[in-house]
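User: For my dataset I need records formatted as: sequence, then structure tokens, nothing else. Please produce one.
Assistant:
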Amino acid sequence: MADRAARERVRNPPPRPVGLILLTAVIGVALVGRDVFTFSVGSNEAIQTWSTIFVAITIQALPFLGLGVIVSGAIAAFVSDRVIQRTLPRRPSVAVPVAGVLGAALPGCECGSVPLAGRLMARGVAPSAALTFMLSSPAINPVVLVATAVAFPQQPVVVVARFAASLCAAVVIGLLWARWGRAEWLQVPRRVHAHGDSRLQTFRLTVQYDFLQSAGFLVVGGFFAATLNVAVDPSWSLTVAGVPVVSVLVLAVLAVLLAVCSEADAFVAASLTGFSLTAKLAFMVVGPAVDIKLIVMQAGTFGRRFALRFASLTFVVAVAIVLLVGGLIL
């Protein structure tokens, strides 16, 4: 009996308590509310702003994170390895573009795509294809494209440019990783912890583990993003809005720092009236691919060595493609 219990603990270890503690802290902050927090800190405007941004980032992202881990749980429990292998070709040069296009089928944000990509890798999908899906899903899905069309009602070309630039960036990054990425840089998530005695139990364990683990890193990322939002004075960016290449870099860096959810970033970009459409495109393409909270989440899921290399690669490729697409379309 004791041996059986020990085996079950090996197969199904409990979720990391750090993730549970951090998730509980977020829910506690949300339940207490901004008014109570404001009362406790008095008239300190910076702390009030920080608390509002922190809660907004985490609470806004949690539903989409939940959607991502539910999909990943369903894949782990109900989709066989054979089906996954048949869906994606074995050759990376073919699997990467296919994975990029399939990203349009999942309406979610970048937070949910990280655990889903980890689950795909654990099921035997090539890392380059899984990473391509992780980048394309939050950027070209129908919800994001409709939100972009609403944010730019008189400029439908922006929707086309966003779709083209985001898909091209995801595919190029996937192909580059397939060619030059090293296995020792990437910590593929284990799948043994999610095995249960039934499909429903496997689904429950996978969702529980992935959600608590990812939510913990989401909170850490939200903390840093909120801190940077308060520490960085946005007025400095307005002085370079009229310089084409520099303005693109400025909004790309701003997208990394602000960590706005992909379903809402188009409205933020549209409000930056002093910048060109190409610079606004950079904000919408770079943000869903690499930002503070994503770097933290990817470090927790795939390892710190991967996160640093992948974030740098993603930023450079995304900015280069934005400049190309913006010059051709916008």
